[in-house]
Design a protein that fits this description.
alpha/beta; 9-stranded mixed beta sheet; 334 residues; globular; single chain
Length: 334
């Protein structure tokens, strides 16, 4: 039985009042990628959705590519100028008709049951559903033809969200994370807590810290990979590019939203990695002093800090891929 047949049967039985989920996909100058993302959203087993693609600025090539997708559930919103992904996501939320908002980056894709499986958590606890921020895991392919799953672990009981995001318990990054393409959030919560305009990086972490610190939302993890996070060394994500000063300013501005332990860990790992990438050797001691003076450091974080400065990024990447390939022997076609 097709998803559309199920949808119209429920509609006739008055089981559906309005759209359940609005999928928001921001994009700019990546027509082939966004088409792949859109098709994965439209292929969901949950039929009661709309897919809103927000074209961030004048982009006729992407507009033309999207007109070739003939599905009434697809809505294209074109912005007059490029203002960044946070604004594009916020504009998509304002345009949305669904009770729930799901975000998908234009270079990622979902497995068909992603939304349906996340909504089962909502239906299981309707009293808390409006505050739920639902997330899941994603598969990541590497250059060895294998995959690993991120985040590698879920939060421990009573673990502060800032420490889950920033404090590593192992050698490699992507241990604890909340990725935009996994999020399913009530529209009301998104209207109360829009993405911070102008942020070039740390957009997910910024939003999660604000929502959880105000206790407006609670994270609910589905311990299953429900999509693919695509990586391409020739097309790095913003989160992997430089500008360590920007990241340092961001964490300083969010000092009240993180624990001292998370503050120092972010500086000794995330900021340090970007500074090392830019070969800002003279700044290593000032970063170490910042972490010691305003945070709560540990021996493991010191060792990570030292390794980041002594070990080139490409070598760390190769070690990470080989380690995860050793632990994950299944292959996927990416």
């Amino acid at each position: 039985m097709s998803s559309w047949f199920k949808f119209f049967r429920k509609l006739l039985q008055n089981e559906i009042v309005l759209l359940i989920v609005s999928v928001v996909i921001p994009t700019c100058n990546r027509p082939n990628l966004v088409v792949r993302a859109v098709r994965s959203a439209l292929a969901q087993t949950l039929a009661e959705i709309e897919v809103i693609v927000v074209i961030d600025g004048v982009d006729p090539v992407t507009h033309t590519a999207l007109t070739k997708i003939h599905d009434e559930r697809l809505v294209v919103l074109e912005l007059s100028e490029n203002q960044g992904a946070p604004n594009a996501r916020n504009q998509g939320v304002l345009k949305a008709s669904g009770r729930w908002i799901a975000f998908l980056d234009d270079d990622d894709e979902w497995f068909p049951e992603k939304l349906e499986k996340q909504l089962t958590i909502v239906h299981a606890d309707r009293s808390a559903s409006k505050k739920m921020v639902l997330t899941c895991r994603l598969q990541v392919g590497n250059t060895l033809g294998k995959y690993y799953v991120v985040p590698r672990r879920l939060p421990d009981e009573d673990e502060p969200i800032s420490e889950y995001l920033f404090v590593r318990k192992g050698l490699f990054r992507s241990e604890g994370s909340v990725i935009t393409s996994t999020l399913l959030v009530s529209r009301d919560l998104m209207l109360d807590y829009p993405f911070t305009l102008g942020l070039k990086r740390h957009q997910e972490a910024d939003w999660i810290l604000r929502v959880c610190s105000d206790k407006a939302g609670t994270l609910a993890f589905l311990d299953e990979p429900l999509g693919i996070l695509h990586t391409d060394r020739h097309r790095p994500r913003i989160s992997e590019t430089g500008d360590w000063q920007y990241s340092l300013k961001w964490i300083r501005d969010r000092y009240d939203l993180v624990t001292p332990k998370a503050y120092s860990a972010f500086i000794l790992t995330a900021v340090a990695a970007l500074a090392a990438q830019e070969k800002a050797w003279s700044k290593s001691f000032s970063l170490l002093w910042e972490a010691q003076r305003h945070g709560q450091t540990s021996l493991s974080q010191y060792l990570l800090f030292l390794g980041i400065w002594l070990m080139p990024k490409n070598l760390r990447r190769m070690m990470r891929e080989r380690w995860f390939s050793f632990r994950n022997v299944e292959e996927v076609n990416l």
